[in-house]
Amino acid sequence: MTSSHMTATEKRNFAGGIWHGAFLALGNAFARPNTVLSSFVNLLTGSTVWVGGFSTLLTVAATLPQIFVARWIEPRPRKMPYLMLAIYLRVFSWGLLAWLIHTIGADNPRLLTGALFVLLSIFYAGGGLGNIPFTDIIGKVIPVSHRGRFFGGREALGAPLSIGAALLAQRILTERPYPDNYALLFGLAALSLGVASLGFWVMREPVGEERGGTVPPWGDYLRSLKEAALRIKVLAGVEILTGFSLMSLPFYVVYAQNVLDAPRAAVGLFLLVQVVGGILSNFVWAWAVDRYDSRRMLTGCALTSATVPLLAILLGRWGWQGLLPVFFLAGAIVSGRRVGFQTALLEMAPSEKRGTYAGLNSMLILPVAFLPLLAGVLLKGMSYPALFAMTAAVILSGGVLALRLPAKESLNVS
Q1: Which CATH class is domain 8-204+212-410?
Q2: Measured CA angle at 212 (ends 206, 216), to 5 deg
Q3: Where are the domains of the chain?
Q4: Which pLDDT tens digit goes with each residue over 67-96?
C-alpha cells in the first residue's frame, strides 16, 4: 500500500496508520453499533425507541465536544498526546462496560441499561475528542496523493482480522449465555483498541508552530467558524441528506428479529456479512477517490445507498435470509461514507484549520444524530417498509446535491 514516492518517515507514518486502522476495524467488528449494539439494546429493553435513542446518544456524545476541543487543541504544536488520551479513554470505558455486564448479569436490566448509557457516552465522547487531533495529524503525515488509499487501506488491510472477529462473534453470541456473550465481545473490543493504539506510537508527528500555542479569542474563533461554514455548507448538506441511510441502519437487525423471526445466531451472520461488505468495498472507494475525486465517489456512494432500504423491502419477502445483501451493502455504505467524507474534508480544509473544520463539520451534521431516535418513534405507528421507503427518497436527494461539491482540482489541497 505504500509507495516509492514517499519518504522513509512518510512510509513509517503510513504503516502506523494502517496498523491502527486494521485493529480498529477488528475492535469495531466485535461491537458494531448497528448489529451487536442494536441487538443488545433491543434484548435489554425490548423498545425501538431505546434502540434509536442509543444511536442518537452515541452521535451526540461524539459531536458536542468537538467544536470546543478544536479551539483549544488546534494551536498546540503537537496533537498526538491528546489523541492518545482519547484512545485510552475509549479502551477504559469499553473494558469497564464488559466487566459491569458480566458482574450485573441479566437480573438487573435497569442498572445494566444505566451503565450502558454512561459508558457508551464516555466511549463515543472519546471518539469525538480524538477526531480533532486525528484529522490534523493525518493531514500532516499522509501525502495528498495517498489519502484515498490510506483511508481505504486502513480497513481493507484489516480484512482477515475483521472477518475472523465476525466469525468469532457469531460463535460467542450463539454458544455463550446472555449477557456474558456481549460482555466478552465488548472486552475483546477494548483489547483490540489497545493494540490499535500501537500504530500511533510508531508515528512521527511533525512539530507545528500553530499560533505559538495561543488559544484564539472567541470573537476571532467565531469569525473563522463562519468562514469555514460557508466553505463546507454543501458538504454538510450532502452528509445530512445521505445520513438518512443511518436512520434505517440500526433497524435492519431489529426488523429481522421482530418481524422476520431471525434466530439469535442470525445477528452474528449479519455482522459477518456487514464486515465483508465494508472490507471489499474499501478497495473500490479508495480507487475512486484517488482516480477521480471525493465528489464523484460520494455521488456514487449516495446512489448506491438509496437502493439499500428499497432492497430491505423487496428482499424481506424471502425471510430474514433475504436481508443478507442488505447488510453487505450497508457495510459498504458505512465504509464509503467514512472514506469519502474524510477525504473531502481534508481537501477543503486549510492545513492550519483542520481541527476547526473537523469540529464544525461534526456540529453542522448533528441533526443526523436524531434520525435513529426519530425512526424509533415513527415505528410506533409506521411499518418498517414505509420507513425504509421514506429514507430512500431523502438519500437520493443527497446524491443529487453531491454533484454540487467542488472538484478536487478547484481546491487548494495540502
Answers
A1: mainly alpha
A2: 120
A3: 8-204+212-410
A4: 777 777 777 778 888 889 989 988 998 899
